[in-house]
Structure formats: structure tokens, C-alpha cells
Design brief:
single chain; 76 residues; alpha+beta; 1 helix; 3 strands
Length: 76
């Protein structure tokens, strides 16, 4: 088993700590998913989801090469 180093988390205030923590967890999860599935994923922060009758901003949208697969919002 090979362990990979995905980086170090450094924070300066509570809001940035929460954002960096969530972002780091999501990026690391996507990297692990890419390693396991051999697919390419991307994460778009502050993404605008447009529907038939309205739109909404979400904190994170996760996409694979072809489609949107997950939208999420961070909560305190």
C-alpha cells in the first residue's frame, strides 16, 4: 500500500478554518476517488446551479468528465 501526501492545512480565522477544512476534505476525497476509479473529477467552489424556473448558488459542485454528480453546502 502506498500512502500519498495531500498537503498541509494552515488557518488564520474561524471562517477560513472551516472553509479550508471542508475544501481540503473534499479535494482529498476527490483525489482518492480518482486514484481508485481512474476517472477525472473537478470541484467548483461557489457554483451557480441553473434550473428550469430558478437558480441557486451552492458552496461546492463536484463534476466528473461528463456531468454534475454532486452539489453540497457547508454548514456550521
Amino acid at each position: 500500500m502506498v500512502l500519498k501526501k495531500y498537503g498541509i492545512l494552515v488557518m488564520t480565522n474561524l471562517e477560513s478554518m472551516r472553509n479550508e477544512c471542508i475544501s481540503t476534505i473534499l479535494h482529498t476525497t476527490l483525489q482518492i476517488a480518482e486514484d481508485v476509479t481512474n476517472k477525472k473529477f473537478s470541484m467548483k467552489p461557489e457554483y451557480k446551479i441553473i434550473g428550469d424556473e430558478s437558480y441557486e448558488w451552492v458552496n461546492y459542485a463536484i463534476k466528473d468528465e461528463e456531468s454534475l454528480i454532486c452539489i453540497t453546502e457547508d454548514k456550521v
